[in-house]
Amino acid sequence: MKTFRSIWIPLSLGLALAGCLAGGGGSGSEDTNGSVVVGKLIYTDGAAAAGVRIWIRPSEYLRDTGEAGKPLPPADAWTDARGGFAVKSLQAGSYTLEARDDSARGSRMEFEASGKSAELAEDTLRPLGSLEGSLSANGRMQGSAYVQVYGLDKVAKANSNGDFCIAGLARGSYLIQEVSSLPGRAYRPSDPVLIASGATTLIAPIPLDSFAGEEYSTWPLSREILVHTAQAGVTEKVVDFPLLVRLTQENFNFNLSNGKDFRFAGPDGNHLAYEVERWEPASKHAEIWIHLDSIPAGAGSFPVTMYWGKRNAPDFSSGQSVFSSFSGVWHMREAIGASEEFVFRDASPSRADAQGRIQSGNRKAVWGYGGRFYGTHYLHAPGAKILTPGTSLTLSAWITASGTDSMGGEIVSLGDNCGLRLDLKGDPTFFAFKDSKWTGGVSPPSDKWGRATVAASRLIDNRWHLIAGIFDGTSLRIYMDGKEKSVVSFQGPIAYPLGQDLWIGTHGNGINGYGFFGQIDEVQIAGVARSSDWLRLAYENQKTEMSLLEFP
After folding, report:
1. 304 contacts 288 by C-beta, under 8 angstroms
2. Are strands 126-127 and 105-113 parallel, antiparallel or unpaired?
3. CA distance 473 to 529
4. What is the CATH number of domain 326-542?
5. Is 321 helix (H, G, I), strand (E, B) or coil?
């Protein structure tokens, strides 16, 4: 299921209105240097609206479906005795301001922050309205379905009949998004919804579309993308491969898409699952992952057709479909909160979301954004069986290192039972433990460890490198920038008595001295041993100076 999430933390505040629960919230504005926005709120009789809570969200913000029914977050600001308010540190962009008092009255304003101070027009609080509708025109539905409101902390889960209700809406025109948990199914985008003050708006049932049943000949725009496998040195068949497509103003007109209308097909016309990792039309950048079942050996060039430009096309972007065979995938592209707290979402079916602290500042990575670590920063995801594969494993991450802690720099660790680490010299190591009977009390037996190291590689060079560790059941292999660099014999399976949680940027069971200094991006775990051609193709596809793809 595709979800939209916030890293902001909700508090215990809710609202009941018009017979249904108001959608709760999950965020607060980021504390950055930027615009200061001031305004004033009044009531219909002209009295100052004092003590009114105010929330501000980016206009494209959508609350995570998992937050449905949870309470509202703390307000970003409150009006003073004269009804005035001020919100500081807004980055340039489009925003939605929502104001509500304790008597079910509120207002909503849209505005642009330009980096300078701005004064909004005086607005009036009026009785709130609500929205009701159905996501199923055929009785009881399968799976789960949700409705999100753009720019607000509003998300509602439909009941078993597909009916939903969203309360606490100020008058105005809203855009909503409908989300289905059914693979390959999505709701057709609805028209803007007009909410009247103190009234309930009823909308017609919203139909569910199928990814498999789409006819791409109806898409107005298309072009072929060539994947030059021969140029990457690929000589064998590559299976289950996530292809990264990067769009810029040099190869794509961002005015002709809304970021939700993309579709892809292979040379046989079969539909290809995709995930839009980033869509930033303002900066002319987008990254899209496409799942390729197989790339034949000796193909030379493998064609993929991209379609876009169809109005009201459902949004079928799904990381869980693209990375269906992975145990975990962290793109590391989420925004950071004011206190550097963050949640990085797992794009795989495991849904092993990780949270912790990273360093603020420049996060530009090989593509998009990564996580910056400085010794004490880390990412942590609770352990699960799917994150601890034993008989085979591929563990990889992009890194750029500026230094290590006193014992080395941990890149990613599965409970310290296996992982990737830089030693003090900057040489990467892939390590694994295999004694399932060890229960602690003394140091783990040294003969139960396996380590493959790329000697004299010296990666503390502030340059991006793709590091991958492979366990195939009989050996540990470490790859650097798509090339195998070291192999050691290791009769598995890998055991996990030391811990089962995932850690990024710090030691797997809390030992000090292994903090990572630098950036880490695109951490991936799979319970299979990827081939040399697979890893070579991944590096050539994802590196900064990428020439693997051609847009004829």
Report:
1. no
2. antiparallel
3. 9
4. 2.60.120.200
5. helix
Q: Which residues contact 482 (CB under 8 A, 6 or more apart)?
A: 466, 535, 536, 537, 538, 539, 540
pLDDT tens readout for residues 163-185: 999 999 999 999 999 998 887 88
- Please report where in the chains the tokens 């005795």 appear, as a residue: 81
Do the Cβ atoms of 189 and 147 come closer than 8 Å?
no
What is the sign of the dihedral through the CA atoms of 407, 409, 413 and 415? positive
In angstroms, the Cα distances linking 374 to 264, 340, 402 are 39, 12, 9
Q: What Å distances lie between residue 144 and 107, 119, 140, 180, CA to CA?
A: 31, 42, 11, 6
The answer to whether 513 touches 337, Cβ cutoff 8 Å, is no
Asked if omega into 58 is within 30° of 0 (cis), the reply is: no
Q: How many CB atoms lie within 10 A of CB 513?
A: 14
Would you say the CATH fold of 326-542 matches that of 16-209?
A: no
CATH code, 16-209? 2.60.40.10
What does the pLDDT look like over 431-472, one tens digit per residue? 999 998 887 777 888 899 999 999 999 999 999 999 999 999
CATH class belonging to 216-323: mainly beta
pLDDT (mean) for 275-287: 94
- DSSP, residue by residue, 151-175: TSS-EEE--TTSEEEEEEE-SEEE-
Question: Which percentage of the chain shows pLDDT scores above 70?
Answer: 91
The answer to whether 305 and 224 are in contact (CB under 8 A) is yes
Distance, CA of 77 to CA of 87 (rounded, Å): 7
Q: How many CB atoms lie within 10 A of CB 149?
A: 25
* Contact status, residue 480 vs residue 465, Cβ threshold 8 Å: yes
pTM higher than 0.90 = no
CA–CA dist 176, 192 (Å, integer)? 7
Pairing of strands 185-187, 208-210: antiparallel
- Distance separating alpha carbons of residues 146 and 3, to the nearest angstrom: 10
Contact assessment for residue 472 and residue 489, using Cβ atoms and an 8 Å cutoff: no
